[in-house]
């Protein structure tokens, strides 16, 4: 605020100095033009001195006006700061970890040393060359880093939901502190009976409309009208997130390396069928990447060697035990959590508008988040 006054008064002083001293001195020293007109005298002190006072006065008058607008912006920011601000902060940390994981995946497997090598051997009986994995990259170190990265992501996204629940429970509690803090969390229920059980201890600490809102996103309700890109047997984003953070199911976060849909070959000449297509049969896509895995069979022209090693390479496809691509599955969860926040802000604009910024006191963080030691 002080900087605004200083800026305006400093500019006013500069304008006065220029118009009262500098410009008149330059104008009086100016020589007449070839036409006989002395522009320095015409636009010297007679013009710039009044002009300078007008501009300086305007700057001084605008100082408090600018200050009022700035104060209004700051105050509106404070009023518009939602109850979700702490939760969204944790979500952003999860988002950053996910960005880093995606970058690491691309960087790691762009290196030829981390790609699987493919060889080709002629099957004399069928006349096809059999392409198979002859070596797999040493990815043990990457697997460990991957598991830690997944934990960093999941242990920010789920606490973000718990933080949201904590803030809502604080808002509902008359004292500002939930009466049963350990029971305050964002429940994730796979069945109506599980939800009813959570309602007995946790649900009573929320406003009814907030509890109904949370129920709307529960796994037992399925897709429930939300767009979802999941393929195969349906797994709800929150159920998947819970499994990632469940210590008893830590194997879910272990990477599984599969044969990708695309691979690079040397420049072979493939025999063409009558319809003009290449005479090959792809056999290994989506299977665990391991030594000896048959990738495909292809008929090559007669000039091809019976044994070709290396014949090509491929970048492992990193998935979870569910078979879904790791980065895509995590991004799906991240977007679903953000959807919950966005829908809350849309549905309860009055509540978010009257929230203070930042929230302080005993409701800074839910106890389960502190106990879990979530990593940011």
Topology overview:
Layout: H1 2-28, H2 39-42, H3 45-80, H4 85-110, E1 116-123, E2 128-135, H5 140-172, H6 192-201, H7 208-215, H8 237-245, E3 256-258, E4 264-265, E5 280-282, E6 294-298, E7 307-314, E8 317-319, H9 326-347, H10 349-353, H11 367-372
Antiparallel strand pairs: 1-2, 1-7, 2-6, 3-8, 4-7, 5-6
Helix pairs in contact: 1-3, 4-5, 4-9, 5-8, 5-9, 8-9
Q: What this model shows, in words?
A:
By secondary structure, the protein is of the alpha+beta class. The protein folds into two domains: 2-80, no CATH class; 85-372, no CATH class. The chain has helices at residues 2-28, 39-42, 45-80, 85-110, 140-172, 192-201, 208-215, 237-245, 326-347, 349-353, 367-372; strands at 116-123, 128-135, 256-258, 264-265, 280-282, 294-298, 307-314, 317-319. The chain has a six-stranded antiparallel sheet with strand order 4-7-1-2-6-5, with no helix packed on it. Residues 35-40, 74-81 and 353-376 have low confidence and may be disordered.
Quick overview of this protein structure:
The longest helix is centred in the N-terminal third of the chain and has 36 residues.
Mean pLDDT: 79
Q: Give Rg in angstroms.
A: 34 Å
In total, the number of strands is 8
- SSE run: HHHHEEHHHHEEEEEEHHH
Helical stretch tally: 11
Strand content: 5-15%
- From the spread of the alpha carbons, the general shape counts as flat
- Could you say how many structural domains there are in total? 2
Instruction: Give the helix proportion (percent range).
Output: 40-55%
Uncertain segments of ≥5 residues (pLDDT<50)?
35-40, 74-81, 353-376
How is the main sheet built? 6 strands, antiparallel
- How many angstroms does the end-to-end distance come to? 33 Å
**Secondary-structure-derived class:** alpha+beta
- State the strand order across the main sheet: 4-7-1-2-6-5
